[in-house]
Amino acid sequence: MLTRLYIDGVWQDGARGRTMPVHNPANEAVLAHVAVADADDVERAVDAAARAFKTWRHTSGADRGRYLRAVAKAVEAQAEALARLQSLNNGKPLAEARIDVADVASTFAYYATLAEGLDESSEQAVDLPVQDFDARVRREPAGVAALIVPWNFPMVTTAWKLAPALAAGCTVVLKPSEVTPLPELALMGIIADVGLPAGVVNVVNGPGAEIGGVLTTHPGVSKVSFTGSNAVGRIVMKAAAETVKGVSLELGGKSAILVFEDADIDQAVDLVTGGIFFNAGQMCSATSRLLVARELERALLDRLVDRAHRIVVGDPFAQDVQMGPLINRAQYERVLRYVRQGVEDGARLLAGGARPERCGPQGYYISPTIFTDVPANSALWREEIFGPVLCVRAFDTEADAIELANDSPYGLAATVVTSDTQRARRVAQRLDAGVVWVNAPQVIFPQTSWGGFKQSSLGRELGPWGMHAFQEIKSVVSARG
Ligand code: NAD
Q1: Mean of the per-residue pLDDT values for the chain?
Q2: Which DSSP symbol is given to 323?
Q3: In the chain, what percentage of residues exceed pLDDT 70?
Q4: Within its chain, how far is the Cα of 420 from the centroid?
Q5: 475 strand-pairing partners
Q6: Which of 10, 126, 230, 291 has a 20 to 30 A CA-CA distance from 376?
Q7: Residue 80 and residue 135 in contact, taking contact as beta carbons nearer than 8 Å
Q8: Residue limits of the Aldehyde dehydrogenase domain (predicted)?
């Protein structure tokens, strides 16, 4: 198991030899002790990335594409081991961890293709209204990028930044979440093995405020790409302002799923439960607010409560388990606090809200939870809970549904469930959300964009936009003759 820092092509301990324990959320056992970086280590990592940038920026797109494709192949070859490590450290059921690993491989393969095309596409001639000048606009790598990622999809959030950054020609310093460094270090082991030049990718573990603080203020870092909470996102943006770095933020959400009266109720049950209980609700895009047409409310709630009671919660490695534990005690207590607050605020608890009886005393397990009649101004309805808690309100008209869905400071994602294709298109256009699924589970393709409106995001990941985030734009204007 890899547990050290990776700086300038060398696995190493931190300057002061500090370590931190990493836990298994399913039973609270210590899995490993991971090396912790000091400010000096972060400095060395940024210096190594800056030195490597001098040559990496000039490698051809074709060469960078070859490295990325090799990573994709190696991830596929080691998929099962990576998935198991992720379940162990993050607590998600193995079936879900396998989906994450497949996503990581396809993200690297996609950006391999984009990198290969860069030799052709990174410079374009511009039509000018005069004959005396020739103008070309080029995209060039931004420089050293700091990548800061959360614990809920550790490898996926890393791949969504790392693959486009490398494709663009940036070098990087990655800071994994201190809660889930093990899968990311394993991914880094693969990247180290494909033979990238020393310093192109560096990894520094440690407490967010300490390590992240150095990265986000370091004058040698040109770009910060952050995924995590809004509270920390704001700190990152302020810190980066000092040296005017490019900043991309992927933050929280309180996404809505809208179920209309003409929906297929079986499909609605699958989409609603998948949207909130996948990864135990610890998803930025979790559709934690269900808006249901009043005429379907009773029938859908009965079915949802029945399904919630039948979801098997427990050890992520058990064959029959569909939902694992929450990530740690802080998250577990936070979710239970929201449940208590919801009851006090007058919402009606229909299912869950407590530790499942079948789970023993160890591990951070909470049953699939459903609240209805949730007051629109309550914390339960407005704040990101980041747990398996579904909040339900009924609506009377399509316009009401859209207004309720959009009444949030967030705007990451939304799901629309209806058999009326005209309505689906109309509603999708009116939702303030960066991603809308219509009668579909939360499938994500590297070819499409990822990110939200309002306070959910700044910039976009995936697709060409994900790579543009790591590029500068340069105009070259030449006099003719
Ligand atoms: P977090 O904000 O606590 O931590 C995220 C990362 O930031 C960690 O690596 C942490 O160590 C680091 N960090 C902490 N303090 C820092 C500082 N002062 N400067 C720089 N870095 C610092 O988030 P989390 O609890 O790990 O993740 C959950 C959050 O992530 C949720 O709000 C969720 O919605 C969000 N998220 C968003 C997306 C998206 O695509 N929009 C995807 C996944 C998770």
Answers
A1: 97
A2: B
A3: 100
A4: 31
A5: 137
A6: 230
A7: no
A8: 11-476
Q: Would you call 122 helix, strand, or coil by DSSP?
A: coil
| pLDDT confidence of residue 107 | 98
Overall average pLDDT of the 451-464 stretch: 98
Task: Tell which one of 226, 229, 383 to mutate to probe ligand 1, the residue whose CB is within 8 A of the most ligand atoms.
Answer: 229
Interval between CA 152 and ligand 1 midpoint (Å)? 9
Q: Residue 301 has what pLDDT?
A: 98
Please choose, from the candidates 225, 231, 275, the residue with its C-alpha nearest in 3D space to the C-alpha of residue 254. Answer: 275
Task: Enter the tokens of residue 42.
Answer: 């972060």
What is the pLDDT at residue 55? Answer: 98
Q: Is 360 exposed, middle or buried (0-12, 13-18, 19+ CB in 10 A)?
A: exposed
**Local confidence band at 481 (pLDDT 50, 70, 90 cut-offs):** confident
Residue 71 Cα to ligand 1 middle (Å) = 25
- Delimiting residues of CATH 3.40.309.10 domain(s) in the chain: 256-438
Catalytic-role residue among 96, 184, 250, 297 = 250
- If you classify domain 256-438 with CATH, what class do you get? alpha beta
Residue 141 bridge partners (DSSP): 471
Q: Supply the pLDDT for residue 309.
A: 98
Query: Is the model's pLDDT at 252 over the cut of 90?
Result: yes
- Is-catalytic flag, 250? yes
What single DSSP character describes residue 212? I
